Amino acid sequence: MAQVQNNGITGGVSASLPILMTMVAFSTIALYNVIELNAIIFATFKRRRGLYFWSFIAATWGIAPHTVGFILKFFNVTSVWWAPLVLISIGWVAMVTGQSLVLYSRLHLVAGSQRSIRWVRNMIIFDAIVLQIPDMILAFLTNRPNAPASVVNAFSIFDKIQVGMFFVQESIISALYIYETVRLLGPIGGRNRNPLRKLLSHLILVNMLVLVLDATLLGTEYSGHFEIQTTYKPAIYSIKLKIEFSVLNRLIDFVKKKNPAHGSRSQTSNSSYPLSFLTNTMGSAANSGSVDYTDKGGHQPRLTPVALYTLESRRPTPKDPKPLSPPLKLSYLDGSK
């Protein structure tokens, strides 16, 4: 029981000077990144609306109360035991769920399957309800005065479960980005100077880095260092937001430049286009070579904005009259493929 209290699960934390300095360093990094992210967000977004914007705001602003709440709790700054927990809970929900919503809001740019996108959305909602609500309740019960050891142990176990489950959730989203991006890279060919290839390669590297950062966070939780994990988490989430903001905005700018019609759409729309849309942007070249993408059931495939540009970059030219072959693997909104 004494070890649990020393780790900061109940009340303040009692740790060596190196650990305390590490905790302060992580908290400082998180709070600094919040300031920088706010400056970047309001300097970048011209239209401040839509799921992408508000999820970024929620994820960024959630870091500050989450970090400050643990500072108040660990160092016993206030005698009101529930006050730090309110800040921690509000910040945790906004930071963790907001981070996943940021990735979900831009997933339609690379993923053509609406079924996969809906599945990710439902997973985020399910985990927010099933994992976050019970964990917050147990946290309040654990930190109240004279909390029984059984409640403390229950919180310690469930906290490890929720960290592991959110690691799985974010790994699935990152893996989906990587899979869909690798699938799109195939038809582009070996054009090393192709700007889309460079951008998609950057997207893959960013999501691989996110997986590595999440794995380190999981390691700190299961190593028993609760006080390290809770201060390390907002620092990691702030770093992930910065690198994701960079590559996702590049992807959005690329799509808008190559497809002006997409730029006029709402930021929150899960845009995909019927194959007939290519005739508006590519002319008759899209149908040259007698390429027919309509299947036997008469289903019309729909393209993500990035897949649209992939097809456009491979259209026949006078120098290269070869038609689109093999055809790009397309996704169907009705789930028939």
Describe it.
The protein contains eleven helices and two strands; from the N terminus they run αααααααααβαβα. It has helices at 2-6, 17-44, 51-74, 83-105, 114-143, 149-188, 195-222, 226-258, 260-263, 278-282, 305-313, and strands at 273-274, 302-303. Strands 1-2 form a two-stranded antiparallel sheet. Helices cover 68% and strands 1% of the residues. The protein has 337 residues and is mostly helical. Helix 2 (17-44) runs antiparallel to helix 3 (51-74).
Give Rg in angstroms. Answer: 23 Å
**How many separate helices?**
11
- Terminal residue distance: 55 Å
Order of helices and strands: HHHHHHHHHEHEH
Mean pLDDT: 78
What's the count of strands?
2
Largest sheet: 2 strands, antiparallel
- Structural class, by secondary structure, is mainly alpha
Observed structural traits:
single chain; 337 residues; mainly alpha; two-stranded antiparallel ribbon; 11 helices; 1% strand; elongated; disordered N terminus; disordered C terminus
What's a quick, concise take on this entry?
With 337 residues, the chain is mainly α. It is 68% helix and 1% strand. Helix 6 runs antiparallel to helix 7 (195-222) and helix 7 runs antiparallel to helix 8 (226-258).
